Amino acid sequence: MSLGSISPEAHETIAIAMNRIGGQSNSGEGGEDKARFGTERVSKIKQVASGRFGVTPAYLRSAEEIQIKVAQGAKPGEGGQLPGHKVSELIGKLRHTVPGVTLISPPPHHDIYSIEDLAQLIFDLKQVNPKARVAVKLVSTVGVGTIAAGVAKAYADKIIISGGDGGTGAAPLTSLKFAGNPWEIGLSEAHNALKANNLRGLVELQTDGGLKTGLDVVKAALLGAESYAFGTGVLTIVGCKMLRICHVNKCSVGIATQNEKLRKEFFKGHVDQIINYFTFLAEDIRSIMAELGYKTMEEMIGQVGVLSVKDDAFAQKFDFSSILHQEKGVNTHQQRFNHPFDDNSFEKDVLKEAMTAIKHPEQPIRINREIKNVHRSFGALVSGEIAEYYGDEGLNADTIKMNLTGVAGQALGAFLAPGVSIYLEGVANDYIGKGMNGGKIVITSKNEGEEFAAGGNTCLYGATGGKLYISGSVGERFAVRNSGALAIVEGTGDNACEYMTGGVVVILGQTGINFGAGMTGGISLCMIKSISLLKMSIMNL
Asked: Is 508 exposed, middle or buried (0-12, 13-18, 19+ CB in 10 A)?
């Protein structure tokens, strides 16, 4: 549940309660105030969705777990939605956007366009925060087992199967009616598909979607889930009356609203209420386990044979054989981390040199390397270390200057921190400057001009700051969801500057169709191929 869909008071109450009992709260896809990092109010799970709201190096570095939200069970196929009247000054600041403007997370067709793109994002996140586990949230549906197997092969540490009974604190009713599937369908299929492909031991399996009672948790465990996420039930405990008006910003109990008067006067939730709820929930689970003869949760996970279909006319109408199917193999993950095959030794070697400047920023350093296209996410490891010491403030400009030659792999300068400058003589692949927060990326080449492609697709996606200069053109989806970076390039493909909320983009050459679609902030300057495209772009702006 994001800070934005629910109030700061409700969000922090949940975080404190979960930290006190050894659980984890989820930031949602709305960013988090840096004042909460390292305190009892921090959300240990940081979410990264297609909107990239508030995703910075310090945000990622403050996490024990980073959750990639591919979709949500309550509204599959759609991203997050936040009406403009819920985007207050605070929410606008945390999301790097303009207060009062409606926000959406587009369906994940930008940097998680395919399973290979998802694997790259997982790799990026494991570089910027090597201590955090990476989870991927999928929707319960027929066929999700195949997707889950791919996600495990992409080196995720945890897979979440999200059911349709969960709620959302911002979306309109048209996004919720008759949408989603029960979590049982997807959980059973994912669990068995992972076992059939000898992947179950690599990843933890979690489920959510309206879980409320001990019986819900026990059923989920028997179907293969090792951990369990709660939303609606927890909000009910702190006062939610299920009025179904979350999207209008007029929640009468001060939970799903940013209205300061409603929050101050009516929010009565308390940390102890949540702790009591989970204590009673645990007791409920313990009593059911005792009845079934299990001493530990680990013994119970995946024992689907305990479940049976009720002997009544209604239940007998349905075929539950696929849900009650049980593959052979381990039922739980056997390792905490699902380590990538690529150990990123190239940048680890660079980090050893850079640590001198990180620990002693008054001593700038210059690093020279030849880079190859197998060297991915270059800059993310160093940036994460800088965020560990200095947060998003980073270092002074050009404290760490890297001079590269060659062809850079994907995600050059991903989540780049202030103080790092990357100068590349050559070309780079997709995702240049993805999520960059500061610093500078300069790409030059002996080949110049609009017709020369110096960068790939989806560059500067979700950037929150920094500067990017490229002497050449880039591919499609340039500067999508840019919210603070300055960029100058010599041409782009289609969909440039889509969903931008801030920053400045100058395109010296031509660009393609759908320029600036959904753009709500920032400045973009470009040449359009035709008058009709220019008219369409102006309408979008």
From this structure: middle
- What span, in angstroms and rounded, lies between the C-alpha atoms of 107 and 105? 7
Q: In 141-180, which positions are buried (b, 16+ CB within 10 angstroms) versus exposed (e)?
A: beebbebbbbbbebbbbbbbbbbbbbbbbbbeeebbeebb
Q: Is the pLDDT of residue 486 over 70?
A: yes
Structure tokens at 296: 């530990």
Could you give the number of structural domains in the chain?
2
324 in any annotated domain: no
Which of 304, 333, 368 is the last residue in one of the domains? 304
Q: Tell which residue, 272, 292, 297, has the closest CA to residue 282.
A: 297
Residue 528 has pLDDT above 90, yes or no: no
> Whole domain around residue 105: which residue ranges?
8-304
Which residues, 6+ apart, have CB-to-CB distance to 465 below 8 Å? Answer: 418, 436, 437, 438, 484, 485
What is the four-CA torsion angle of 483, 487, 492, 494, rounded to 10 degrees? 10
153 in a domain, yes or no?
A: yes
pLDDT of residue 137: 95
In this structure, is residue 120 part of a structural domain? Answer: yes
Kindly report the number of other CB atoms within 10 A of residue 531's CB atom.
Answer: 8
- Considering the domain architecture, whether residues 254 and 383 belong to the same structural domain is answered as no
d(CA 141, CA 185): 7
Collect all residues with Cβ–Cβ distance below 8 Å to 304 and sequence separation of at least 6.
Answer: 188, 222, 223, 224, 324, 325, 326
Question: What's the pLDDT tens digit per position in 132-187?
Answer: 999 999 999 999 999 999 999 999 999 999 998 877 666 667 777 778 899 999 99
